[in-house]
Amino acid sequence: MSRTTDIFLTALAPAVWGSTYLVTTEALPDGYPITLAALRALPAGLLLLALTRCLPHRAWLGRVFLLGAFNFAVFWVLLFIAAYRLPGGVAATLGALQAMMVIFMAHGWLGTPIRIAAVGAAATGVLGVALLLVTPEAALDPVGIAAGLGGAASMAAGTVLSRKWQPPVSALSFTAWQLTAGGLILVPVALIFEPPLPVLSATNVAGLLWLGLIGAAATYALWFRGIARLEPSAVSMLGMMSPLTAVVLGWVFLGQGLSLTQLIGSTLVIGSVLIGQRVNRKDNLGSNIWRSSTVESV
């Protein structure tokens, strides 16, 4: 399968994640972020476990729960905190810093060289997201900023470690393990800190099914598949497609306008993603060779 196909399939994941804001605001009850995150992760993980019939070996349990925390539990909780305490544009811009963090984490943990062009592409992407989403009236909250940066760091660590720790199973099984682990971590947190959910309507159930089956099970399988095949920095750049999709969906379904500044931001985001794929392609072959020689020892 060509690299272009791998990039396209991996990019589908953040493109679908861009629908999360629309589905959350229009189809889910407000005020239950941790509970909804648990309901998004755990049922999807258990369903994939039933389909794959593949459980992690005891030696992998620690890594699986750490990855489940980074990629789902910690990331989603901090993401919701940032979303509640910051304007959506500010939270998304902080999240876009994940691509920059991955470059340096991959250098430290995988030995991937730091390329100036890759750093420049990531910085351009962050600027594009800021132009796309941040308004002059955006208020800054220290707790929200800390949560946004922490969420970006959590997802960045999960992305790099998911590449470093590649079990000899399919991407679907690896996704099932992490979703289940993340859901198991979230359940007690939700029970402690949030009240019980009200009776769910048909719209609520449909929203949860979309976020769980499509927005978690299917898309994260594509995401982890991409992490196994592409250089981590290239994968993280694709994450910038999420806020772009969110803006397009808001324009199509909610009648939200698109300003000239947002169109410039969209162009910068798309350009940075394309440049990021081109620059990071140079590292992919060497990274694959490195992983092949070390995966058995980590």
Automatic annotation (TrEMBL):
It comes from Ruegeria arenilitoris. Residues 7-133, 144-275 form the EamA domain. It is found in: Membrane. It comes from the Bacteria. Belongs to the EamA transporter family. The lineage of its organism: Bacteria, Pseudomonadati, Pseudomonadota, Alphaproteobacteria, Rhodobacterales. The keyword Transmembrane applies. GO terms for cellular component: membrane. Keywords: Membrane, Transmembrane, Transmembrane helix. This is Putative DMT superfamily transporter inner membrane protein.
